[in-house]
Amino acid sequence: MILQRLKTYLDDHAVKYLVISHSPAYTSLEIAALAHIPGKEIAKTVIITADGATMMAVVPASHMADFKLLHAFTGAQHIDLTDEQEFRTLFPDCETGAMPPFGNLFGLPVLVSESLAEDEMIAFNAGSHKELIRMSYRDFINLVQPRVGVISYPKRFSLSREGWDIPSL
Question: Which of 17, 101, 129, 158 is least buried, going by the fewest C-beta atoms within 10 A?
Fold first, then answer.
């Protein structure tokens, strides 16, 4: 089910959005494949700690957050990926790892990869591993007011047991 505080926020701001239900999925590229949405339009939320402050870094599913770029962008001396056990309590209404990129609803600053601006639409977890929200990137930026910059790079192709892992670009 869609996170109620997110639904209320979007409805209160008269934003048009689409809820997409899918079978349970836990990786952003798996979600992209199930929803038939290019990986570059799926926003994955990565929780980081920068000089002791918890933040959301939002990057396309087809990208990786880059800690050197995050250092340069934030000016932070020390940045770490935050462990799910550490941030679970920050998102009590969400399934672990399925938090939407609306840090403003959780008291967190949001950093967004500029590459998400390449498309008109954005899709992201709606608080569960079974639902996405798809909406305009412009509405997302207007509602969240994130810092947008160069914080990610495209994933490289790799060979897995199932064959080539080629992200949708």
Answer: 158
